[in-house]
């Protein structure tokens, strides 16, 4: 009787995940997820994002007729800024949120199809939920390039795994669409493509080893053709907009400056770095154990893990791991738990680490939504009052000296632009000389400068104090749990007016 009941439940679960309502259910989950945890775009939060604020600033610049990378500079791909310009034109943050929900829905559907190669029924759904929890572990405020890249990572992985499970070879059409995905990611942030690049290298290396020259050439042309469908309109846009200089800055910003950024040393607590690498190592070891007899699948996955470690450097920034979630889901779907103490201890340790990563998103949800104690709301309110001291005719001449994150955050909330031609450049990260920074400041000759004394170059302050006078100070305090070194930022931002 019990076995018959269990079989009927299993069949009902299997029928449910195969029904069309299942995908609508995933769409609902996606919307609730971004509504609760995408702080940069959700109406539940005041926060407008740090990196996300830069993307919105660039989108606003496009709508104002500016040429991004020339008038404003950032080190991400132009498709990201075009997307934000479109969303802002259509209605603002809530439209961005809806696009995020659509993107996540497509990602979940593709992940579900990947999981279906190994599991069925309710197990399939549970693993998908585990993937969503993993996404939340590394989800730092939402509206970041890693999140937007997910559908274009999941599709190539789905095609590669489908080919492997069915014993087929990918045809030129498949490689064309994979090339399209690579092209989209390249013009978001090229590093994000690493999760399926191991499969690409394995595929084309196989053609060469088997001396299948025809297949190699046809599929390579199809792959490159897919990339060009994305690349040519972007290159043409910048050439028509700003000539060869526009193309140069677009190519430099999209492909080169991002790798320069990897060389910048960012201080991250040791415990975060250790946890970061333990998570990567745990899933990689799990993949070894589950696929040790399937080299055709294991080797490209291992290559992708190695490319991830190379492509993202040693910064240990949590949201970088968002792009690895599809590979982590594959590890979970293929892994078989053995009932011994070593496995239990290892899984328990991994669970503790992942729970620690969940403290941040649920902490913000608790403080800012449930307790209605949103510190960003207070900061923005204070800035809104103080910005009234700056005449409306002068608000387009504010130089964001060394607050490229907080400064964008504040200005974006007030729908203002910084007047800097360069907001994120090599010398913004301390790679250039003081003379370069001073030349930029003198060239712009802004009416207003935003400065934070604790990160300003000391030798530069005499120039600012000589030519500018302090007008007002904004206490930027978004810290929670100060005595416990909790998350958030606290600093004083000084506003100087040109004499």
List keywords for this structure.
single chain, 499 residues, mainly alpha, 2 domains, 4-stranded mixed beta sheet, 18 helices, 4 strands, 65% helix, globular
Describe the structure.
It is a single chain. This protein is mainly α. Helix content is 65%, strand content 5%. It has a four-stranded mixed β-sheet with strand order 1-2-4-3. It is globular and about 75 Å long. The relative contact order is 0.10.
Major sheet details: 4 strands, mixed
Q: What class would the helix/strand composition place it in? A: mainly alpha
Mean pLDDT, as a whole number? Answer: 83
What is the tally of beta strands?
A: 4
How would you describe the shape? Answer: globular
Strand fraction = 5-15%
Helix and strand element order:
HHHHHHHHHHHHHHHEHHEHEE
Fraction of residues in helix: 55-70%
Number of domains: 2
Span between N and C termini? 88 Å
Strand order of the largest sheet: 1-2-4-3
- Low-confidence stretches are 422-433
Q: What oligomeric arrangement do these chains adopt?
A: single chain
From the alpha-carbon coordinates, what is the Rg to the nearest angstrom? 24 Å
Number of helices: 18
How would you summarize this macromolecular structure in one to three sentences?
The protein has 499 residues and is mainly α. It is built from 18 helices and four strands.
Secondary-structure topology with pairs:
Layout: H1 2-18, H2 20-37, H3 51-63, H4 78-90, H5 93-115, H6 121-137, H7 145-166, H8 172-189, H9 194-209, H10 213-262, H11 270-291, H12 295-311, H13 325-334, H14 341-370, H15 375-386, E1 398-400, H16 406-413, H17 434-444, E2 448-451, H18 461-467, E3 468-477, E4 490-498
Parallel strand pairs: 1-2
Antiparallel strand pairs: 2-4, 3-4
């Amino acid at each position: 009787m019990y076995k018959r009941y269990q079989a009927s439940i299993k069949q009902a679960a299997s029928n449910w995940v195969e029904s069309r309502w299942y995908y609508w259910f995933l769409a609902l989950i996606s919307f609730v997820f971004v509504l609760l945890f995408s702080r940069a775009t959700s109406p539940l939060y005041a926060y407008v994002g740090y990196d996300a604020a830069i993307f919105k600033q660039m989108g606003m610049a496009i709508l104002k007729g500016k040429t991004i990378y020339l008038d404003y500079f950032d080190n991400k791909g132009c498709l990201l800024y075009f997307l934000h310009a479109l969303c802002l034109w259509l209605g603002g943050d809530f439209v961005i949120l809806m696009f995020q929900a659509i993107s996540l829905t497509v990602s979940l559907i593709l992940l579900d199809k990947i999981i279906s190669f190994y599991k069925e029924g309710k197990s399939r759904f549970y693993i998908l939920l585990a993937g969503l929890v993993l996404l939340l572990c590394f989800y730092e405020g939402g509206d970041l390039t890693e999140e937007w890249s997910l559908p274009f990572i999941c599709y190539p992985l789905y095609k590669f795994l489908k080919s492997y499970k069915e014993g087929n070879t990918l045809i030129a059409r498949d490689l064309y669409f994979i090339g399209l995905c690579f092209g989209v990611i390249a013009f978001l942030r090229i590093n994000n493509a690493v999760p399926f690049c191991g499969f690409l290298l394995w595929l084309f290396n196989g053609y060469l080893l088997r001396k299948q020259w025809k297949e190699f050439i046809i599929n390579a042309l199809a792959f490159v053709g897919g990339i060009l469908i994305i690349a040519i309109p972007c290159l043409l846009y910048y050439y028509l907009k700003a000539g060869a200089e526009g193309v140069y800055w677009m190519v430099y910003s999209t492909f080169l400056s991002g790798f320069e950024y990897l060389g910048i040393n960012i201080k991250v607590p040791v415990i975060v770095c250790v946890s970061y690498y333990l998570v990567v190592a745990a899933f990689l070891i799990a993949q070894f154990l589950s696929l040790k007899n399937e080299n055709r699948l294991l080797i490209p996955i291992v290559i992708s893990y190695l490319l991830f470690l190379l492509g993202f450097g040693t910064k240990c920034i949590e949201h970088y791991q968002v792009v690895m979630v599809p590979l982590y889901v594959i590890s979970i779907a293929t892994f078989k738990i053995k009932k011994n103490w070593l496995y239990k201890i290892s899984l328990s340790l991994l669970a503790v680490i992942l729970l620690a990563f969940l403290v941040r998103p649920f902490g913000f949800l608790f403080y800012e939504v449930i307790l209605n104690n949103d510190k960003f709301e207070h900061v923005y309110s204070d800035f809104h009052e103080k910005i009234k001291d700056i005449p409306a005719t002068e608000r387009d001449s504010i130089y964001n000296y060394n607050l490229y994150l907080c400064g964008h955050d504040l200005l974006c909330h007030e729908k203002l632009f910084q007047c800097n031609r360069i907001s994120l450049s090599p010398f913004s990260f301390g790679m250039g000389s003081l003379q370069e920074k001073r030349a930029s400041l003198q060239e712009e000759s802004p009416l207003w400068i935003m400065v934070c004394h604790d990160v300003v170059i000391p030798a530069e302050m005499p120039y600012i104090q000589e030519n500018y006078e302090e007008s007002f100070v904004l206490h930027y305090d978004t810290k929670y749990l100060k005595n416990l070194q909790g998350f958030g930022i606290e600093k004083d931002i000084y506003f100087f007016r040109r004499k």
